[in-house]
Every structure is written in structure tokens, then in C-alpha cells.
Amino acid sequence: xxxxxxxxxxxxxxxxxxxxxxxLGCLLGLTAAMLGGLGVWLxxxxxxxxxxxxxxxDRAWYxxxxxxxVTEIQDQDLFYHHIGRSxxxxxxxxxxxxxxxxxxFAVDQAIMRERLEQRYGLxxxxxxxxxxxxxxxxxxxxxxxxxxxxxxxxxxxxxGGGGNxxxxxxxxxxxxxxxxxxxxxxxRFGAYYEVLRRNLRWRLEDATRDWRHALxxxxxxxxxxxxxxxxxxxxxxxxxxxxxxxxxxxVKMTRDPDCHTTPDVIANAREFVQSLGAPVxxxxxxxxxxxxxxxxxxxxxxxxxxxxxxxxxxxxxxxxGHLDHRGAADFTLDLVSALEKTSAFQRIRENDDRQQx
Length: 357
What we know:
By secondary structure, the protein is α/β, with parallel strands linked by helices. The chain starts with a helix and ends with a helix. Keywords: Membrane, Transmembrane, Transmembrane helix.
């Protein structure tokens, strides 16, 4: 039997009468307006990428790593999928350093600006990635986005158990959380979504942190959050415990110096260097598990120079794995001094002198 009248209208409208449809329309309109307003507000924030959590005083700095319960990182998506301005700045760099978090903590950007940019007019970029020991990820980024500086500096560390820089894996690790780098499986649209989701999540956590702590008690984050500068790649590690403290212990090299490399590592290193398409100088950020012998072995075998600091006893905030602010300043000064002695760096200077003439 066919329903007629108002009952039939409700059935054909899925159970909604005119008042219900008006209510649903208002609700959808309000939701769309709220989302539109949120989008406009996020766009007005400026910063490196849409939705970025930036510093009010300097929009080039963006929240890179954080999370109250689960930590996440931004830069893997930003660099791999060319989101934001980082890749544009990388392409303008004359000298780029590569490595893991050891490099993120060990390079003082202010000293690099003074010793390389102001003295020689060379733009420097720190393209290290926290949580990624292997260089395969950054090699793919360099080839994908046609990054060709005048000189690469490679921290050729074997990881001390965290993975050799010249291995080909695509893993990232934050403590016990080790997995394949998500960025390589994402489309560019998917990466945009993840970046926006991450920033919205962090904003919500920031806005609700005080009352959540009041209700449930304060729970420390797994790791401190930190920002990154899209212009230089520098990471601000000042939130890490004892990073800014004085009197931290110095790095003590505990590895047997008779720690030679393997033919596989040499073969991978040779292919890695050839794929970069520009001169390479290898270096070593001292850490308690590192092996300077391997750096020399690899460099000698593939015919590249080493800019190795004479010292290894730089101060460290975490007992010998990563340098603190004083250790980073001392290491960066020594690194530039060692770099200035290499033929690869001197050729850059000679070419500059010829162009000026």
C-alpha cells in the first residue's frame, strides 16, 4: 500500500520532515562556515606551510616535532613532498651537511653563518633528519628535487648500533618506535593531509593542555618538542633536558678503534657519493659509540676527503650520544677549521676568486 500525505513525504525524505531538513541544512551550513573560517584563520597565520605552528617573532621557524602522548615529526613529509619552503632554500645552498640527529644537535647555525656565510659568502644548509640513521632517505630527496650544492658534507657515522649512514634502509626510529618512513608511501595529497592533521592535533593539545593536566595530572611527553628553520634547516634543541646547561660531561669514545668497515658499506658509499653529483667531504660528529676508523676507511676507499676534528671530548647533554649547546659551538668551530683545509673547499674559494676577477 502506498503511503500518502505527510507520512509519505517523510518516508520519501528518509524520515525527515520540512523542519528536520531545515535543521540539517542549517547544521551543514554552520559546519561548512566553521571549516571555512578555520581554513581562513590557518592561512592567515603565515609560516612555512599551511597550518604551520610558527613563532610570532619569526615565521620561518615551524613546529617540527611534538605530541603530548604520541610524538610525530613534520620534516620528513615537508622535504620529501616539497611542502613549504624548505626545498626552495635547500636548492639555493652552496654547502649542505647530511646526517642524523647527531648533526641536528652538533651544528651551531650562528657560527656557520659567521664563519661560512659572512666570511666567504657561502649559504649553508643543515639537511640532517632526526630519527633517520641511513642516508638513503636524503639521497632520494636530493635526486627527486634536483638538489646540487657546490659541496656536500656527510657525517659518515656507523650509528653505534643505530644504523650505518651508508646502509640503504628507509627506517626511522624514535626510541623503541621503529618503522618504515611513512612519507615514502604517501602521495603528495596524503602528505598534505598528514601535515595539516598533525598541526591541528598539536594546536588542540596546546589549547587544552592546562585543563587536561588539571583533571588528569601532568604527564610528561615522550620527547621534548622542537622547531626547525625552513631557511637554514637549523633545529632549536633548547627544550631538551640539560641542552643549555653548563658543566655537562664530555663525550668519551668507548668503541674499540680497531673497528673497520666492510666491502658492502664501501660499495654503498661509492654509489651514494656518485649519485649526489657534487664534491663530497666526510666528517664525524663524536659520540660514545662512534668509530672514526670507519670514516677514514670509507673515505680512502672511494677517494673523498675527510674534515675530521682533532678533538672528540665535546660536552654532551645525554651522556655522549648528542652534543649540548656548548659542545655544538666548539664542534662547529673545529669543523669549519677542518673544512677550510680540504681541497674541495679551497676549489670553491678559487672559483669564487676567478669569478670576481
